[in-house]
Amino acid sequence: MSAVTNYSGSRLLTTAVRQQLTLPHMTQPQRALLHPSDLTTIGVTAYRDMLIEYVAVPDITDGADHHAARKAMQDEIARMNDELEMHSHWPAPALDAEKRLQPNNPVAAAMYDSAPCLKMWREKLVPAAIALTSLYEPESRTLPTGEPIDTRTRCFFMHSLDAIAIRSRAAIMSDFARRYATSDGSVTRWTSIACGAAIPVLDAVEKHVGTAAVHLKLIDFDPNALDHARDKAVDRGLVEAEHFELLKRNVVKDLIVSDNLVRELGAESQQFVDMLGIFEYIPDEFDGFKSAAAFLANAFQLVKPGGALVAANMLDTRPGLHFIQRGLGWPRLFPRSIDQIYGIITDAGIDPASVTMTIAGDGLYAVFEISKPDALD
Predict the structure, then answer these.
(1) Which residue from 79, 58, 57 is spatially nearest to 319, judged by alpha carbons?
(2) Which has the minimum average pLDDT: 82-86, 204-208, 218-222, 305-309?
(3) Is 238 helix (H, G, I), strand (E, B) or coil?
(4) Which of 42, 217, 256, 358 has a CB 3.0–4.6 Å from the CB of 191, allowing a cystine?
(5) Distance CA 102, CA 358 (A)
(6) How far apart are CA 327 and CA 80, in angstroms?
């Protein structure tokens, strides 16, 4: 049985070859899985002593009726990205003092002129976490703030590579959560750090955990995002205080420069911790302090033996980075290589052999699960 090759030409291992690897983290939690996986493994490789899985993730745009529109949108964005790359001196869009969007380059100007709701989304919602609601729910007819979405803007939310990748990373995180949901009737304790509107978390709970068997701590610094998360949770039948609680906390102050949140919630108190949308906004270092590693180390303290932490980071090899940075004008984040992520994990004092990194076929994000061994395993 031969290995397969991924998009960058690196060798991936088939399931038969993977079974020959002896990395300790490859043993999944010793519990019966209640639901099958939606992901299809297309290859496996080892990076040093860390496992990397490449997967195909189903998406709402997979149907034949979406193929033409998806290709047209992604081809158009690729052309915009090429033009922006050729004119690297063009500045990114930005908001002026009156919070009005200034495109600042002809590519962004033409795009926003052709999609008025996209401009409204950029002005009113970005960088707030609820900006992603429209990508998670691309069939919605309105923005979270109530404005109607025009057809062209909906195409961006539905078919752009970044929109699909946002949904893919959520599906991967959901699949990780599936492995750690308790099956003995006890409550799964789950903390979501910088949760935003918590749509991926709530979708995963609904699908794999069950509202009656979970207690969520939804943590964010944005009160509007927490209000949005409350509405989404109640819509799914969760009861505040019984199934979830909202905590307005500053993760920089309480989980990076200190471990206040660990002391508040309790070390090793959570079965599952996710930081799906925040890790890539934390710099590797700040004034000589290894901030990303401190964030990871402190968050991992929350995980009980037998549980896991899940984070995600945009990859620096992703296509279309110029479009994101100087077309949309998305706020600064830190795309990273697999090697950089590996370095942060080791700087955090975490054994990389406990890590499974999963990359979807779109190649935009690395979603990594860090499991904490159970003393009984």
Answers:
(1) 79
(2) 204-208
(3) coil
(4) 217
(5) 37
(6) 8
Of 73, 77, 158, 129, whose CA–CA distance to 331 is shortest?
Answer: 129
Amino acid 34 reads L
More confident site: 180 or 327: 327
The residue assigned the tokens 């990594």 is 368
Q: Quick check: 145 and 179 in contact, CB under 8 A?
A: no
DSSP string, 32-54: --SS--S-EEEEEEEETTEEEEE
- What is the torsion angle, in degrees rounded to the nearest 10, for the CA atoms of residue 238, residue 243, residue 246 and residue 249? -140
Show the domains of the chain with their CATH numbers: 4-56 (no CATH), 182-316+345-353+365-371 (3.40.50.150)
Residue 242's CB: how many other CB atoms inside 10 A? 10
Token couple for 363: 């190649």
Q: Is the peptide bond before 29 cis (omega within 30 degrees of 0)?
A: no
Residue 111's φ and ψ, nearest 5 degrees, are -65, -50
Express the helix, strand and coil content of the chain in percent, nearest 5 each. Answer: 45, 20, 35
Cβ partners under 8 Å of residue 231, min gap 6 = none
* Residue type for position 295: F
pLDDT tens per residue across span 342-377: 999 999 999 999 999 999 999 999 999 999 998 665
- 3-state secondary structure (DSSP) of residue 189: strand
Instruction: List, in sequence order, the alpha helices (H) in 236-301.
Output: 251-255, 260-265, 291-301
Q: What is the pTM of this model?
A: 0.90
- CA gap 98, 313 in Å, rounded: 32
CA 53/CA 12 separation, integer angstroms: 9
Residues 316, 337 contacting (CB under 8 angstroms): yes
- In the block, tokens 């929109």 appear at 163
